[in-house]
Design goal:
This protein is an all-alpha fold. 74% of the residues lie in helices and 3% in strands.
Length: 285
Amino acid sequence: MSRNNGTAPFERGHPARATSELTLRIASGFVLASVVLAATLWGGLPFTVIWAIAGGGVAYEWLALTEEDPAERRTRRVILSALIAASAFALHWGGVGLAVLLVVTALVVLVLVDRRGARLSLRAGGLVYAAVIAVVPVAARETPFGLMTVLWMFGVVWGTDVLAYACGRLLGGPKLWPRVSPKKTWSGFIGGVIAGTIIGWIVLAATLTGGPAPLPVAGMIALSCVAAMISQAGDLGESILKRYLGVKDSGHIIPGHGGLMDRLDSFWAVSVFVGCALVFRALWS
């Protein structure tokens, strides 16, 4: 007689189901990363399309999560999400001013149609959140060190996420913030920061990204370390939002991963960091 752990095959918690979910997660992650990296290396319109889709999708998910009756407001979500997505194209073809105008238009439309909503400020914040995803990577890619900057963002975020998960599972130990995210540990946080710092430094120092390194070694290490910590703060921030809203995932669009917000929370936080640096650079110059 075969032995099992008390659950039928493919029920939640059964080893076969867990293995299947992990395989799906790895496969979908590989495909998604390949598409994004290809668009990043190509640059231009393909890269802009990727982030227009990402920004619009995040806006749609956020609005859906914060609406009391999502079925009746689908058209409204589509319009607002389209405006956020269009801001990426506006930046690519028309500059920052036109992109900001579209984001402001989306906020004005939201206020006009939802001025009595109990969660208006939260929903408006969601549109700004999504606009960061749509606009900042496009703006970063078009700078003199654009390819290096975007690859550095990916390296820090992906390295931090993967090693934080691995160290947390293998080493365990004290919880980082159990009230917000019961599975995250200090070992995962520290391992993620170390990995993100090392990978970020390697990307900045690599000659394959073109041109000389933009910073001295100490600066590259410090910048990558700060970004790795910010990356994990973004993950925790979305955990707080989902606990407040009482949901487990932001959506189900990515097989094995959940929604776009679930995959881009850490990247969003690093995008804010990079966006602030771009604004400072523009003001300084």
